[in-house]
Amino acid sequence: MRIEGTGFLVACFAVIGLGVGVVGVVATGWAEAAFATEAAGDAERFGPIFVAQLYLAVTAAALIGAPVVAGVLGILVGSRAYSGREAASTCGIGTGVGAFGYGLLVVGLIVGSQGAAAEQAYGVSDAFGALVATTAGSALVGGITGALGAWVG
Q1: Confidence tier at 151 by pLDDT (50, 70, 90)
Q2: Whole-number Cα distances in Å, 14 to 20, 31, 45, 81
């Protein structure tokens, strides 16, 4: 395993997670304003439900992106490795740790930005299972694509 490769992967995931989290905050804030802020009638009653579902959907979409990022970065970093085993370990660990940080950033930013209309939305602890799945899936994809990158690189 190469420490600099692992660090590079973690740093890439942190930067991407920050960007995705900011976009998630903007999207969910926009939806909260559109569906629930100063709503009346049925919108007042159902607006918070729509907002909670949107927070969940935006977070899920962001977490689904982590294995895709792991695949791309795994191939890139793996192609620079000396062996498939080195690439698999470097990319597997780097993308797993990176994806966990990515997920924490995304979830933390989105949960931290929840307004009054999002009282029914999820909390950080509610997303833990999804974070673990994102981490495991990304580590697996990163390790395999890292080895593939070494094979063709």
Answers
A1: very high
A2: 10, 25, 37, 22
- DSSP at 80: T
Nearest to 140 by CA among 83, 94, 84, 81: 94
Q: How far apart (Å, rounded) are the C-alpha atoms in residues 136 and 63?
A: 12
Q: What are 45-98's pLDDT values in tens digits?
A: 677 788 888 889 999 999 999 999 999 999 999 999 889 999 999 999 999 999
Say if residue 13 is exposed, middle or buried (CB neighbours under 10 Å; 0-12, 13-18, 19+): buried
Tokens linked to 94: 């780097």
R_g of the chain, CA atoms, integer Å: 18
